[in-house]
Amino acid sequence: MAHIIVVGNEKGGSGKSTTSMHVATALVRMGRRVGALDLDLRQKSFGRYVENRRAYLSRTGIDLPSPDYRDLPEVEPAQMLPGENPYDARLSAAVAALEPVSDFIIIDCPGSHTRLSQVAHSLADTLITPLNDSFVDFDLLARIDAETGKIIGPSIYSEMVWNARQLRAQAGLKPIDWIVLRNRVGAQVMHNKRKVGAALEELSRRIGFRVAPGFAERVIFRELFPRGLTVLDLKDTGVDQLNLSNVAARQEVRDLLKALRLPGVEVNI
Predict the structure, then answer these.
(1) pLDDT tens digits, residue range 86-118?
(2) What is the predicted pLDDT for the residue at 121?
(3) Cα 70 vs. chain centroid, distance in angstroms?
(4) Architecture of domain 3-260
(5) How far is Cα 97 from Cα 24, in angstroms, rounded to an integer?
(6) Which of 122, 150, 185, 207 suits a disulfide with 167, CB 3.0-4.6 Å?
């Protein structure tokens, strides 16, 4: 069966689509078959990223490794089980179609709580939660006492992940490997950054996730989206790759893939 990687966070602007595209493209470049789904049916940032890539490849004639992205299929009422939620049916149909032809399936979730996102989290073998490195986004995971800085308890998103873990345990499936990605970490070590890091480490021990370095705030990530490219594509497209920031961005992708510890994957990009 395909290994399912879910990229989830209930706040927008954390880098979910950038993370999804770079992980998907990296795996394809390493010879893996990768299916891709976007559950944000309104904005579809991940879907648009792939569409931009297809348009760029068609326009330039360049052949670049790409994931097999598909929209959620429509499901006729007659095809659903009695009382089955139509969104559940659409997601199940999409995963069932991709599994026979995929080693990995990347599922990008919307930046809000939806039925589709909830179900997707229960399907995750690996869960990646990109997080902007601040206490504003840390609130997604846990509530903090403003006076003492102590963790009061898990947030509603953490509780959703807990529920997904419980569902998987009841079904006899292996536990979710949950990775929290620290995105947009400042170049300088500031007091607030250290406090966020310490809080994440404490919380990771309490509710069971791993902390991994993510992507810094770089112009290159924003510039590549309209063309559907990733930093891994620079050497194949003629885009200036000698910029030190671009080289560092590529290394960040390598470090992320290594931190994910995906089964059967030896990072060689």
Answers:
(1) 999 999 999 999 999 999 999 999 988 899 999
(2) 97
(3) 16
(4) 3-Layer(aba) Sandwich (3.40)
(5) 18
(6) 122
Task: Quick: pLDDT tens for 54-82.
Answer: 999 999 999 999 999 999 999 888 888 88
Give ∠ CA 120-152-127 in degrees, rounded to 5. 20
Residues written for the chain: 269
